Automatic annotation (TrEMBL):
PANTHER family: PROLYL 4-HYDROXYLASE ALPHA SUBUNIT, TRANSMEMBRANE PROLYL 4-HYDROXYLASE. This is Fe2OG dioxygenase domain-containing protein. Keywords: Dioxygenase, Iron, Metal-binding, Oxidoreductase, Signal. Pfam families: 2OG-FeII_Oxy_3 (PF13640). Residues 1-17 form the signal peptide. The keyword Oxidoreductase applies. It comes from the Eukaryota. The keyword Secreted does not apply.
């Protein structure tokens, strides 16, 4: 059923279709691909439509020299801290009253942990916190016994939230949705990147000209120890600026931790898209649940996404997937909510790079 829906909106492995997506067949399926330099690699299916999203893996797609060259093309002084929400800098007492009204969804004039978490997310992309840390700023709330701690309106509004978020950034940078550094590298500035683009074409099955025409500048990422990126989509269904229909993610060094997790996949359970097709709101709850780094494999033993696809970093390897369907004319098609994914905390410096291919929006297109 799901696959039929996707077939209707995807340009599907047709020779005449420039945007044909690679057919995943079944999990574990490997197709050999010869690269321009004569090297052979295998494109392995890690997940397919029946488990949530087609995801492919290619081991040793980049040489050690290419990994090193990409890292060198992104010198540390050029790396910018990946942006998170900065609304918190404007949370005055007056604005705090408005925030309180916005997040007190049950209108009981106090905030519980979930409601407070909503404020933290909106104000600063803060997705993890502990009540122990909060106790310095909200002593009355944290003095209450049990798990059902509440923050009163008076206490919320009188709290210096700018000071709180600054302290959180200083002492717990890993609590924020993104803890990484990034820069963009232009293909035209580096001759060695042209063969890299051609490798992307070879493994995705797309033409070299299409890849060169539609590739966004390469994003190079550096995650410090403990760095991570909470679950997210690489594009949005209605985002005209970044219609990234395909993501190819390179791991540029070996590191423990730092796994990429596809939270919208379910390798041995009920595929959430089935429930989504039945009208159930599954993606909202999944997205809020996978924000915390506690959703990462083995983080605290709870493993809330134990059946999701996990890809471990390995220098030179690549993983790629589709964020949306694309029409034969290259236009944006149906959005794949199941493409939600995240990068787990790395246990050392982790280098990676993204290549995104863009589809086009039709004028006036409604998605
Ligand atoms: Ca409430």
């Amino acid at each position: 059923m799901v696959r039929q829906i996707l077939l209707l909106t995807s340009c599907w492995a047709l020779a005449s279709c420039e945007y044909a997506v690679r057919d995943p067949f079944h999990i574990g399926y490997r197709v050999p691909v010869q690269l321009a330099d004569g090297q052979h690699v295998e494109v392995e299916t890690l997940s397919n439509f029946s488990t949530g999203l087609p995801v492919f893996y290619v081991q040793d797609l980049l040489s050690e020299e290419e990994c090193s060259a990409i890292r060198s093309a992104a010198p540390r002084p050029a790396m910018m801290k990946s942006l998170v929400a900065r609304e918190y800098q404007r949370v005055t007492k007056k604005r705090a009253a408005r925030h309180f009204r916005d997040v007190d969804v049950d209108r009981d004039q106090s905030l519980d942990g979930d409601e407070l978490a909503q404020f933290f997310k909106e104000a600063a992309d803060l997705v993890d916190f502990t009540w122990d840390f909060l106790s310095a700023y909200l002593p009355k709330a944290t003095a209450a016994a049990g798990d059902r701690r509440q923050v009163s309106q008076k206490e919320f509004i009188s709290t210096d939230w700018v000071k709180f978020f600054r302290a959180a950034k200083k002492h717990h940078p890993d609590w924020f949705a993104r803890h990484s550094y990034q820069t963009f590298v232009e293909y035209s500035d580096h001759a060695f990147l042209q063969p890299v683009l051609d490798k992307v074409a070879a493994v995705t099955g797309l033409s070299k000209s299409l890849v060169r025409r539609t590739a966004e500048s390469m994003q190079v990422l550096l995650y410090p120890e403990g760095g991570h990126y909470s679950c997210h989509h690489d594009t949005a269904p209605d985002n005209p600026d970044f219609p990234r229909f395909l993501t190819l993610f390179f791991f540029l060094n070996d590191v423990d931790g730092g796994e990429t997790v596809f939270f919208g996949t379910d390798l041995n359970g009920t595929y959430p898209e089935d429930r989504f097709a039945a009208g159930e709101d599954v993606w909202g709850p999944i997205e809020s649940k996978c924000q915390s780094v506690r959703s990462c494999p083995g983080f605290d033993g709870s493993s809330p996404f134990a059946s999701s696809l996990v890809v471990k970093p390995r220098a030179g390897s690549a993983v790629f997937w589709y964020n949306m369907a694309v029409t034969n004319e290259g236009h944006v098609g149906r959005f794949y909510w199941s493409s939600i994914h995240g990068g787990c905390p790395s246990k050392g410096e982790k280098w990676a790079a993204n290549i995104w291919l863009h589809a086009a929006h039709r004028a006036g297109q409604e998605l």
